[in-house]
Amino acid sequence: MSDLTKNAPRSVLVTGGNRGIGRAIAEAFLANGDHVAVTTRQGGAPEGALDVRCDITDAAAVDAAFAEVEAAHGPVEILVANAGITHDTLILRMSEEDWSSVIDTNLTGSFRLAKRAAKGMLRLKRGRIIFISSVVGLLGSAGQVNYAASKAGLVGMARSLARELGSRSITTNVVAPGFVETDMTGVLTDEQKQTIKAQVPLGRYAATDEIASAVTWLASDGAAYVTGAVIPVDGGLGMGH
Questions:
Q1: Counting Cβ atoms within 10 Å, is residue 93 exposed (0-12), middle (13-18) or buried (19+)?
Q2: What is the pTM of this model?
Q3: How far apart are CA 132 and CA 54, in angstroms?
Q4: CA-to-CA distance for 160 and 196, rounded, in angstroms?
Q5: Most exposed among 17, 48, 86, 174, judged by the fewest C-beta atoms under 10 Å?
Q6: What is the C-alpha separation between 139 and 136, in angstroms, rounded?
Q7: Where do the domains of the chain lie?
Q8: For this structure, is 147 an active site residue?
Q9: Sheet with 11-15: strands ordered across
Q10: Which CATH architecture has domain 11-179+207-230?
């Protein structure tokens, strides 16, 4: 039996937990009775969660955020690195800033979070690190070279951490969502939405709680022997990758 029990509330940190996928993940852990903290840049955490202001591109801010969570809930036992940004454009139009800002937030930001979380988890001799990637990181996408590279990088990072931290009962996994019903996809035209759905074998977008279900499973006792895995939640869009 894993040390992460169903009965004892766990200290959970979800980055970017004020909306979309991150909010659904935070709400799922809250419903499970866990102590949940979320990082936001402007507030708006779900009711019952500790709202921690943090810019994950700032190493000092990340360290301060963890200190705040540890003071309130104890060492972080479950980290869900979800916060991310996009700056989409074709490569010939992509600026250095378009590239570096996405890599620094999505990939380097996740490195900062995992490094800080690992300190407490190593002392506890248990923990779960879950990166939120994207089907785009596996399939690629025209106009998203920066985003795809950042999301693909999470896979290599997770698998390296799985090997590095596994002997201390710390698992590291990746959830790779496909197209999800969020504010970001809500701005697409009906024609764009239909084009996307036509590529998905299940013929629909995912709901945010379907992504959250995969995350909470990876944090459960039932997934104690799962590490270094990439779990696609994409309706079959990226099968085989």
A1: exposed
A2: 0.94
A3: 18
A4: 33
A5: 48
A6: 5
A7: 11-179+207-230
A8: yes
A9: 50-53, 35-40, 11-15, 78-81, 127-132, 170-177, 230-233
A10: 3-Layer(aba) Sandwich (3.40)
